[in-house]
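Need the bound structure for 2-O-methyl-1,6-di-O-phosphono-D-mannitol, inputs here:
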Amino acid sequence: MNLADLNKIATAMVAPGKGLLAADESSGTIKKRFDVIGVESNEDSRRDYREMMFRSKDAMTHYISGVILYDETIWQNAKDGTPLIKLIEAAGSIPGIKVDEGTQPLPNCPGELITVGLDKLAERLAKYYKQGARFAKWRAVLDIGAGIPSYAAIHTNAHALARYAALCQAAQIVPIVEPEVLMDGDHDIDRCFEVTEFALKETFQQLYYQKVALEGMILKPNMAIAGKKSAKQASVDEVAEKTVRLLKRCVPAAVPGIAFLSGGQSDEDATAHLDAMNKIGGLPWPLTFSYGRALQAAPQKAWSGKTENVAAGQQAFTHRAQMNSLASKGEWKSALEKKAA
Ligand code: 5MM
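Answer from helper R.:
Posting the output first, comments after.
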């Protein structure tokens, strides 16, 4: 492993004013997104949609440091035959790849999941590196409910994240470590804080045991936030203050950067929360975005599968990328959203 090079990539992924586009929806997930806009999900429509984003020159050049791709996309060509990965590189952005193979039920832990895909991962990483991927992503999922998450789920998922991260670094690929605590339940922000603290502490313990070099990774966490069904929603300032407190307790300063998932927050909430955290300032790591839904919901709607809407889709994508870029510097204002509308 060449740690200096891994650190260089990781640092570029969280460069000032830039963040990551999570475009790694598996076929099942992208179908759900396309169903909402009435678009059939097939190889061509998925290609057209992603090509539209990767050809958004302003967004890709100024605001998007890297793109997390799904296996299908990393091998796909644009309509004119250019490999999609080359479009990303041409914009000065870094291609990355989702390498987990989804989740399966965790035995003896009803309602809980374990992320799979470690078998043959070393071989897959070598192929992805050859194709141009310089970072990877693995997502562990923890749900909050009555009696869950169990320690077994937190531990086994953290162990798998560390196994994946170690394999990535051995393949000269920067691992994005994503232990996601879902915001699907009716829990309040303090319960989310407590569970996320446990999950992050266990994750960093496992990373340490498996000798993962923190300087060569990126953390992709959820924010401390109330569950969607909770009657007690937290304010923007409370989310920011508690998330910063949580991260300071759990994330060593050696980590080059933190790029949040949006987890089902509205576009504007995800931006406002990131901005408020960066306005607090004085943090040991850059805080930026690695959003899927919060970057893509607007362009998906604007595009709606129609060639004549490509420019509108690109405009919507560029706007969200720019808003999140400002938020990553603590320079966003809600008036900017109203102006664009
Ligand atoms: C883009 O969605 C990613 C892939 O999800 P599936 O494997 O379920 O299809 C997902 O991992 C995503 O990268 C993260 O959850 C962050 O995306 P959000 O939408 O939460 O910002």
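Comments: The chain is about 50% helix and 15% strand. The chain has a mean pLDDT of 98.
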